[in-house]
Amino acid sequence: MTSNRIRISLLLVPTLIVVGFEYLRHTFCIPYVSLETGNWMMAGMTAISIALISQGLFGRFEQAERSLSREREKRAILEERERLSRELHDKIAQSIFYMGVEIESLRQTNLKKPVAPESWDELLLALREMDENVRQAIFNLRQATEVTINFRERVERYLENAFSHGEVRWTVDFCEASFLETSEQIQLFGILQEAITNIRKHASASSVSVNLTKVPSPGSRTKWVFAICDDGVGFQPEQRQANQYGLDIIRNRAKDIGAAAFIESNEQGTCVRIIKN
Q: Which of 258, 254, 130, 124 is nearest to 195 (CA)?
């Protein structure tokens, strides 16, 4: 049944029931059915007819909600894949180009005199960083297709993979996360990856905590805080400049979901908080 037919039925059927029942009652049933009983019967039949017709309307509404939810998930995944492609270009493609230039430079230099070990070390470091970026991109692409996986499980799986050697202890403290939209989960996961990458490279941390907290709110809008904190050495001025690209990624991801990013760092550690008001 189409929406128009359902709306017409909701208007006409109860009216026809009332008119028909009143006609029958006053024509044939007055000696047998009291006024009060007749009123109750009429109300009951009207309620039942409206409930039966409304089932179709509610069914279409639920179907539309499921369809809209699937479209949102698909859109969020497509947006994340587009972002991944940009990061692949910005990080990996540029790194490959840089290494090509460096290798050619070293080759030319080596023809004249032996290349200093420090130059080879820099090239090896760049290769390792690119390898890490490739692995992270592959992990992102695999995870982006698993829209049904629990968000906490995704976070725990990533942390377990990132700190697989056991050099860093990690904890996850989440409230029930079903209030997060798919797009929010995707962006928060990207923020987590960027923060963990910075921790592994620069923090020299021994522990990391990841928390998601739902903030009580009197209105209908859900407020929450997502935090990644470590006990490392914090940002040094020169490191902050070097990490600016990663920090910009975190801020932009937060902005994309209508949240704000707050990054605090000192000698006791660093904390990245994403707050949605």
A: 254
What's the pLDDT tens digit per position in 188-198? 988 998 899 88
Whether residues 166 and 276 fall in one domain: yes
pLDDT value at residue 145: 47
pTM assigned to the model: 0.57
Read off the CATH number of the domain in which 239 is found: 3.30.565.10
3-state SS track over the chain: CCHHHHHHHHHHHHHHHHHHHHHHHHHHHCCCCCHHHHHHHHHHHHHHHHHHHHHHHHHHHHHHHHHHHHHHHHHHHHHHHHHHHHHHHHHHHHHHHHHHHHHHHHHHHHHHCCCCHHHHHHHHHHHHHHHHHHHHHHHHHHHHCCCCCCHHHHHHHHHHHHCCCCCCEEEEEECCCCCCCHHHHHHHHHHHHHHHHHHHHHHCCCEEEEEEEEECCCCCCCEEEEEEEECCCCCCHHHHHHCHHHHHHHHHHHHHCCCEEEEEEECCEEEEEEEEC
156 and 265, same domain (yes or no): yes
For residues 171 and 268, state if they share a domain.
yes
In this structure, the answer to whether residues 51 and 160 fall within a common structural domain is: no
Q: What range does the domain containing 169 cover?
A: 149-277
Contact 207, 231 (CB under 8 A): yes
Tokens of 169: 């202890």
End position of a domain, from candidates 19, 37, 68: 68
Does the structure show a pLDDT above 90 at 273? yes
Query: What tokens does 157 get?
Result: 């799986």
206-225 residue pLDDT tens = 999 999 999 887 766 789 99
> Is residue 45 assigned to a domain?
yes
